[in-house]
Amino acid sequence: MENAIEVRGLCKRYPDFQLQDVSFTVPAGSIVGFIGENGAGKTTTMRAILGTLRPDGGEVTVLGKPAGHTKTLAQVGAVFEDAFFYEVLSPAEVGSCLASIQPGFDKEYYRQLLAEFELSPAKKMKDFSRGMRMKLRLAAALAHHPRLLLLDEATSGLDPVMRAEILDLLRRFIQDEEHSVLLSSHITADLEKAADYIVYIQKGHILFEKETDLLLEEYGVVRAGAEALAALPADLVVASRSNAFGQAALVKDRRAAAALLPDAVLDKPTLDDIMQFYSERRSV
């Protein structure tokens, strides 16, 4: 399978933060969920992929070309949470502006997307809600029929119904296996539903890159006494914690933990569970 994105040894240094040897791939025809806490390096990495940020080291290949290549940019649609259009413009005016500068901009498809997202073409952006602005950015990113979408918190501010519609749109987008999506989101339940793979970044490091189904099937949350959990092999346990309900640990192999602790309660984890336990580790 070809890769839509290949990130190899990406490094970027700032006074108070650095990406360190970031490597992962986005297979063609897939949706990859990019997770991590605020400040972990998701947006920095995505800007390096788009080519708007020059790394200090490493290589980024997008659709077979170096990141930022002219031919590549024409085939990429991007939505960043902090991006904006001028508030005095309406969606119709945004479309006219983009059509004049963006090769392949499909005015009719753009109008269809505005209708699907229930956005008035004439309403000024200053009167839009946060969710409406995000939908406009997504419509603009899709209107030139890109092969790759980079979406940074693109479902942020949307209600559950609209988020479900966006996820359905993304599934349809990748159906021909020529299109791909890299989607960062703090709404991890959305990624559990839509993402084929999960890439987890923490403090500028990639912790893992796994198929979503395998990740949620292999990992587990074990609930047992402190003494029992302490007996588990160290390489099996990600982290443990105690709360009002007792002791719990995240393990990398639920079946192995079940064999070692047959009387323990083992649950299938959510991505939120996995992130919370990893964030509690003392070292990366």
From TrEMBL:
PROSITE patterns, sorted: ABC_TRANSPORTER_2
Gene3D superfamilies in UniProt: P-loop containing nucleotide triphosphate hydrolases
Occurrences of domain ABC transporter (ranges): 5-228
Protein name as catalogued: ABC transporter ATP-binding protein
KW Coiled coil (keyword) present: no
Organism encoding this protein: Candidatus Allofournierella merdipullorum
Short name of one Pfam family: ABC_tran
Alphabetized UniProt keyword annotations: ATP-binding, Nucleotide-binding, Transport
Example GO molecular function: ATP binding
Superkingdom of origin organism: Bacteria
